[in-house]
Amino acid sequence: MKNVLVTGGAGFIGSHVVDLLLEKKAKIIVMDNLSSGSLRNLEHVASEIAFYEGDITNKEDVEAVFQQHSNIDSVVHLAAQSKVGPSIENPEEDANININGTINVLEVSRKFAVKSFVFSSTAAVYGDVGHLPILEDQSTEPLSPYGVSKLSAEEYVKAYGRLYGMEVTNLRFANVYGPRQSAATESGVITIFIEDLLSRKTPVIFGDGEQTRDFIYVLDIAGAILAILYGRSNERNKQALYNVSSCSETTILTLLDVICKDMGEAFSPSYQEERKGDIKRSCLDNGKLVNAYDWKPQTSLQEGIRETVQYYKRIAVREK
Ligand SMILES: NC(=O)c1ccc[n+]([C@@H]2O[C@H](COP(=O)([O-])OP(=O)(O)OC[C@H]3O[C@@H](n4cnc5c(N)ncnc54)[C@H](O)[C@@H]3O)[C@@H](O)[C@H]2O)c1
Fold it and tell me: Is the distance from the beta carbon of residue 12 to the nearest atom of ligand 1 less than 6 Å?
């Protein structure tokens, strides 16, 4: 049985990772400061996990968790400042959480002889790349402090792998969506559109809507993390790096159309000026991960949207 620490486990992706780990009968420890996550995301599993409210920027908080659970063998490090906008407004705080916080988690993991460390990085490390789909060996030119802090954290993760023989994996996620995602996140465009339509607001498209993103359903992301933790890689690599994506481009116009069709709503967005710093096209090649592990994305955009719409309809009823 694995003993897994999930930092950021009360968040959107983290809570789905917890759900899949429970199916594997893992012992799960969650550490989260609840800054953007919520205990609501874990209420259905509250009696089956150990939860610690703590901040990764405070090394004592991280140590306290390991002191209670000295047999943690795997760490899934998801806790982060994960928005582009705030990273531009406050790059020091972004760096403190994403770089120093990651160093704290790595240091304590080393001290307690963690075997496997999985880090959640992002497509934002690539910047605006000319040719798609983007392969892992593409040069990295992040456009925001968020991309820089995640890239920097990746390097620390790799260095710990080299220095201490820890099995480390950096995963670069595309645009993740699904139930429990907060509309407050940049990549929460799907949640934003659904919430707008449910509350009879007109969805806003920035620019002409022809910009593309690579949307991947959250359970496919969680499945990739589980594949790393439990699977056998065909690739012998102690400091691995993989894109995790659907490897398909969807325009924002198509996305809204799929959502409107699912909800039986008319397609009538309003348009606003393109946002500064938004990249035009995005698509990550996922072939390396598909070939290395028994993993591939299972959920079509239509299916993922259906699940996500159902979830937000249930929430809307609950909150009435
Ligand atoms: N959602 C996406 O599309 C996407 C894409 C690429 C990468 N990622 C990465 O995946 C990870 C999870 O993202 P998410 O979408 O679930 O976001 P999220 O905000 O829902 O989850 C992050 C969790 O970390 C917690 N947290 C934040 N700062 C903390 C701190 N200092 N100490 C302890 N806990 C802290 C939050 O409370 C939250 O529960 C992040 O590292 C993010 O950068 C997400």
Answer: yes
Flag whether 291 is in a domain: no
Give CA–CA dist 46/13, Å, rounded. 17
**pLDDT bucket at 258, cuts 50 / 70 / 90:** very high
Pocket test for ligand 1, best of 18, 30, 36, 149 (most atoms within 8 A of CB): 36
Query: 96 C-alpha to center of ligand 1: Å?
Result: 14
* 272 and 224 both lie in a single domain: no
The mean pLDDT of 45-73, rounded to a whole number, is 97
Domain span at 314:
177-213+248-284+297-318
Residue with CA closest to ligand 1 atom 13 = 13
Average of per-residue pLDDT across 190-219: 95
Q: Is any atom of ligand 1 closer than 6 Å to the C-beta of 33?
A: yes
CATH number for position 143:
3.40.50.720
CA 81 to centroid of ligand 1, rounded, Å: 6
* CA 215 to ligand 1 centroid distance, Å: 17
The pLDDT confidence band at residue 103, using thresholds 50, 70 and 90, is: very high
Nearest CA owner, ligand 1 atom 19: 36
Q: For residue 68, count CB atoms less than 10 angstroms from its CB and return exposed for 0-12, middle for 13-18, buried for 19 or more.
A: exposed
Residue of 146, 156, 242, 312 marked active site:
146
Partners of 272 in beta bridges: 206
- H or E element in which residue 52 lies: strand 50-53
Q: How remote is the C-alpha of 55 from its chain's centroid? A: 18
Residues 228 and 313 in one domain: no
267 C-alpha to ligand 1 centroid (Å): 31
CA gap 21, 18 in Å, rounded: 5
Judge whether 14 and 8 are in contact, CB under 8 Å.
Answer: yes
pTM for this prediction: 0.96
- 167-194 tens-digit pLDDT: 999 999 999 999 999 877 766 899 999 9
| Total structural domains within the chain | 2
